[in-house]
Amino acid sequence: MRRDSIFYKLFQQSPTLLFELLPEPPINSSAYRFDAVAVKEPRFEIDGVFLPPEGDVGTVYFCEVQFQKDQRLYERVFAESFLYFYRNRARFRDWQAVVIYPSRRVEQDDLYPHRTLLSGDQMHRVYLDELGEIRQLPLWVALMVLTMVEEAQAPAEARHLVNRTRQEVSEPTDRAIIELITTILAYRFERLSRVEVEAMLNITFQETRLYQDIQEEAREEGREEGREEGLQRERSLVLRLLARRVGELPQALRSQVEALSLEQLEALGEALLDFTSLDDLQGWLTQQN
Fold this sequence. Notes:
It holds the Pfam family DUF2887. Residues 225-285 form the DUF4351 domain. The chain has helices spanning 3-13, 73-87, 115-119, 139-146, 154-168, 173-188, 194-200, 209-220, 227-246, 251-258, 262-271, 278-288, and strands at 33-39, 44-51, 59-65, 94-101, 123-127. By secondary structure, the chain is α/β, with parallel strands linked by helices. The protein has 3 domains: 1-130, 3-Layer(aba) Sandwich (Trna Endonuclease, Chain: A, domain 1); 136-203, no CATH class; 209-288, no CATH class. Strands 1-2-3-4-5 form a 5-stranded mixed beta sheet, with helices on both faces. Strand 2 and strand 3 (59-65) form a beta hairpin. It is elongated and about 75 Å long. The chain starts with a helix and ends with a helix.
C-alpha cells in the first residue's frame, strides 16, 4: 500500500493534523505550512517539513511516516534533521521531529545510540494502534488510523468516517475528505475498481471524483443563469458521463437523451453509475417513456 502518498495528501489538506498528535503544539499551529524538501550533499529526502509563517523565527517540525522496519531509521532522521536545521539556522530557533509508526513492532531494534534524543522533548514517536478507538478520534487523525486497521474492519470504519464527514464538515472540505477515504480504500483493495470501492462506501454519484471533475469542466464553459442554460449544462454533463460509462451513443439514443427534461437528466445522472452497456441506457429510457 502506497501510504507515503496518502499521508502526503493528508498533510497537504490539513497541515495542523501533525500538531493534533503532539502534547504541546505551537500557539500559531494554524499558520504553519507543510512542505517536502530535499537536502543535497549528501542527498536526503525528508517526508515532511512543517514550516512556521514567513518572518516568524519559530520551530521547524520534521515528520517521518514509517510503515516498514528500518534498522537505521533514526540515524537517517537525525542526520536529515540536523543538516537541514544547520543550513537554515537563521530561519528557526528550534526543531522537533515526529515519527509515525503503525505500531511499536515496526520501530528499529537498537535504540541505545539515540537514547538521549529519544527520551527528550524534541522527539515524538506516534504509534497509530495506541491512539485509541478509531471512532473516538478526531476526524483527520482517524483518517491516518484507517490506513492500518484490519482489512476486514476497514470498509465499516471507512463508511463511518464518510458519514461523520457528511455530518461534521462543510463543502468543499467534505468532498476532499471523502476523496481521501476513497483513495485509502482503493489502495487497500487494489483488486476492486473505483466504482466498486465507491459502492462499498455508499458514496452518492455527486460525491465521486468523476462527477466532480466533469461537473467542473461544465462550469468552466460558462456560468450564465437561466433554466435553459442550466438544462444545456446538465445535458452536456450527462452525455459526457455516458460516453465514459458505455461508449459513444448512437444518434438515436443521443437524441432521446437530449430530449429529456432537466429533472429526467438529473435522475439519469444518478442512474448511469450502474450502467455497464448501451442496453442499460436503452432500458432506462424505455422506463421513462
